[in-house]
Amino acid sequence: MITIDGREVPVRDGQTVMEAAETAGIYIPHLCYDARVTPVGNCRVCLVNVNGRALPACITQVADGQQIVTQSEELTETRRALVRMLFVEGNHFCPSCEKSGSCKLQAVAYYLDIRDFGFRQLFPRRAVDASHPDVILDRDRCIACGLCARASEELDRKGVFELGGRGLETRLLVNSPSGSLADSSVSADDQAVDICPTGALLRKHDAFRVPIGRRRFDLGDGRWQGASMNRKLKLATVSLAGCFGCHMSLLDIDDRIVDLAAKLELVRSPLTDMRQRGRYDVCLIEGGLCNRENIDVLRDLRARSDVLIAAGACAIFGGIPALRNRFPLEECLDEAYLSGAGLADGQLPVDRELPRLLPRVLPIHELVTVDFSIPGCPPPPEAFWTVLSQLVAGQPLHLPAELVRYD
């Protein structure tokens, strides 16, 4: 048994602090960690306080009786400094990046409430390798986490990538006779490409569309095979930690819903209180993750859905609910139930039916793979109409620039 942020957590031999925290539903910010590959502790963003010592959670083994602190002012400032340095040491411009909305660097920056770079921008000039027919390497967006190198070695069994150099001169290298992707054995469906936390490794022919290589997607042009079936597509819509504003915007497509109803079957939605189980062709998710129940629901939906779409700012980066991330959870509960204005004889609600709150509100891509995102708070009705129309027509998902909102 160990204690994490004052909470007792059961552990087993061989677990790391990161694994124990994840099992307990406690989020520790990280960039170079992925459960699919061996952890190495490169980025140090997951630093936690273990019995008074700052140690990386991803490679520190648990030991009975450990007292672990994952959230403190000192840890937060250290993490902010590390993430800010990653931004200024590369060329990261989120609004124009295909990975925006599913980028781990962006998500951690939102989580840490980073609103400025804090350091002088270096604007490095790094080579882009577009020589491969299906994969592009943009070193401007690389954060030298080493995930792709480990995935290529351990999962793909190819050893295509490795890190070379030191400090600011660290670069991602390609193991091929010419040093280019074209001469390597990398392919678009490699896990090394999928595991990249930023937009450094991307599949070509796929910008702002549903990633190729997903279930029931044709590898040639990204068209969804589900649309060719002689039946209606099963659509589920779900609201997690959100305000239902995205669902209201969806309803604002007005009588065009009738046109979609001929090709889409709404099988689960808060709009109708319908909750049909089974498999879903498409699942549209509004809201982020604020409690344990949200996590369980999201994992179940990902397992059941061929296409999972994040709809709105809350699902993509936490949105308005994530404003509480600036304060400890205890302070938020105290303000809401005990000492806030207008409260008298307040008490915290305690009921086994109430799900346990997470220490921080998280975007959904921190937990599962998201196939497509519709940004906005809320997204405009035309964005929903465009995406749903493309789905039923079997077209690659793509939002024109005028429908991409960041408000």
Task: Please describe what this structure looks like.
With 407 residues, the chain is an alpha/beta fold. The longest helix is centred in the first third of the chain and has 17 residues, at 73-89. Helix content is 24%, strand content 18%. The strands form 5 sheets. The chain has a 6-stranded mixed β-sheet with strand order 13-12-11-14-16-18. It has 11 helices and 18 strands. It has 3 domains: 2-71, Ubiquitin-like (UB roll); 128-203, Alpha-Beta Plaits (2-Layer Sandwich), CATH 3.30.70.20; 225-403, 3-Layer(aba) Sandwich (Rossmann fold). It is globular.
Structure, briefly:
The chain has 407 residues and is an alpha/beta fold.
Keywords:
single chain, 407 residues, alpha/beta, Ubiquitin-like (UB roll), Alpha-Beta Plaits, Rossmann fold, six-stranded mixed beta sheet, five-stranded mixed beta sheet
Helix content: 10-25%
CATH topology of the largest domain: Rossmann fold
Supply the number of helical segments: 11
Shape: globular
CATH class of the largest domain: Alpha Beta
What profile does the largest beta sheet have? 6 strands, mixed
Mean pLDDT, all residues: 87
Question: What separation lies between the terminal Cα atoms?
Answer: 44 Å
**Please, what is the CATH homologous superfamily of the largest domain?**
NADH:ubiquinone oxidoreductase-like, 20kDa subunit
Number of domains: 3
